[in-house]
Write a structure and sequence with these properties.
single chain, about 130 residues, mainly alpha, 5 helices, globular
């Protein structure tokens, strides 16, 4: 029971970092697509860059603030990227399942995919990636 308050604080911080990551992702995306003519014609490439910047932002804040991990940066970063790659597969799989199997409305499928991915990323980040 003594772990619950720490886990709760970490979950809240993890969620706040997620909001920050989304802001960073979108800001970089719009800066690239509206600030550099090349990316105006290559939106998907811009999105790949902006998403990667968001993941790097997530790594920094979750390592230093959410979990206060002292694990090595290189191995932790690799685990973090792998976790997020699996999270991407979970996200798209849950979206597909919600839309095509359960025939849920788009917003409900999107919310379910987001919550499922959030849960996966938090649990794996806490227990594996940034393990104390």
């Amino acid at each position: 029971m003594t772990q619950f308050p720490l886990m709760f604080r970490q979950a809240v911080k993890f969620g706040l970092v997620g909001v920050l990551n989304t802001a960073v992702d979108w800001l970089v995306y719009f800066a690239l697509t509206h600030g550099l003519a090349f990316f105006g014609d290559h939106l998907t490439f811009a999105k790949g860059i902006s998403y990667t910047v968001g993941v790097l932002n997530s790594f920094f804040w979750n390592k230093t603030w959410t979990f206060r991990s002292s694990a090595s940066n290189r191995s932790t970063l690799i685990l973090f990227f792998l976790t997020n790659l699996v999270g991407l597969a979970i996200n798209t799989g849950l979206m597909q399942f919600g839309l095509n199997t359960l025939r849920l409305p788009e917003i409900v499928s999107l919310a379910g995919a987001t919550l499922g991915t959030l849960a996966w990323n938090f649990v794996v980040s806490k227990l594996v990636v940034f393990k104390a």
